[in-house]
Amino acid sequence: MELSLATIVLWAVPVVFAITLHEAAHGYVARIFGDQTAYMLGRVTLNPLRHIDPIGTVAVPGFLILLSSPFVFGWAKPVPVNFGNLRHPKRDTGAGVNVNLMLMALNLLPIPPLDGGRIAVSLLPHSLAAPYSRVEPYGFFVVIVLLATGLLNKMMLPLLSAGEYLIRALLSFV
Hints:
The chain contains eight helices and no strands. It has helices at 5-32, 37-40, 54-66, 89-107, 115-123, 126-133, 139-149, 151-172.
């Protein structure tokens, strides 16, 4: 991939938007469950400057890009959560895991414009990718129909099961 300002912006804008939304959601959910810490610190916001970590969001990815690394990763400034302030810490933390697993499973479905649809398009040969990508304007209607018919749950179940299995396997090492 050619490194240019346009390429960096093309990748950086959606990534910064995603981490901003993700971190603000952590603070929002913590507030709903009883912890005001992130809210009081101004971290329940869509202002990306409140979530950018100078090292994790800028320096590490920038360094990897300069090295022409085959992969780039980084992190945002973690939203502070005082689990002692949660009304039901054990239940509420388990709910967060389940919500994230469900969002992961939904987002990985091979339906454009979901990320799984975009992954499918990128893996298909061009002769199939082009027609498949034209489904994108109708993708959310497809998801709604799948939800209404009960097929969405059946499609997400293997991804949910795999995610839960992976989390349980990782936790068994701790």
